[in-house]
Design a protein that fits this description.
alpha+beta; seven-stranded antiparallel beta sheet; about 40% strand
Length: about 160
């Protein structure tokens, strides 16, 4: 059986630099990613964490920076802190296309029997749609930032 690979492509009216900043800057990510932040120095080999933006600072996802080529490519390992052995891989590919930016997010390398694919498959579309909306209009999508169960799913993607 082949390992699943989730691939999401979206086009955003922005620059590669602004998109890179939206992914890697904690304060920026909090605006569209359900109040959660991505925290790291973004150097290869460094740890990164997806944490709640509240005073509790609960770690939602953790991993390592595998590759970092600002503002074009970011590759991360991805794991639930409660089960770091169930690690997968996320690649962000950022490419300028005719005055816009194409963002490819590839989430794959899931371990056999991993439940991570089920956790993230519903969240990525919400987060990426909210990211696009936020960069283009200044407003995130409510489904990705509200306190609903859908926001929780988005936070895990």
């Amino acid at each position: 059986m082949t390992k699943p690979e989730l691939v999401y492509t979206t086009y955003i009216r922005t620059t590669p630099e602004k998109l890179w900043n939206a992914i890697t800057n904690p304060e920026f990510a909090r605006q569209y990613w359900g109040g959660n932040e991505n925290v790291s120095d973004w150097k290869p080999g460094s740890k990164w964490e997806h944490v709640t933006g509240d005073p509790e600072r609960a770690i939602r996802v953790t991993g390592k920076v595998v590759e970092s080529v600002p503002p074009r490519r970011l590759v991360l390992t991805w794991a639930d802190p409660a089960n770091e052995a169930d690690v997968s891989r996320v690649t962000f590919e950022i490419e300028p296309v005719e005055g816009e930016v194409r963002l490819n997010v590839i989430h794959g390398d899931f371990k056999p029997g991993s439940d991570m694919v089920n956790k993230v498959s519903g969240g990525w579309p919400r987060v990426l749609s909210s990211l696009k909306s936020f960069l283009e209009t200044g407003q995130p999508l409510k489904a990705a930032v509200c306190g609903s169960k859908h926001a929780t799913a988005a936070a895990h993607s």
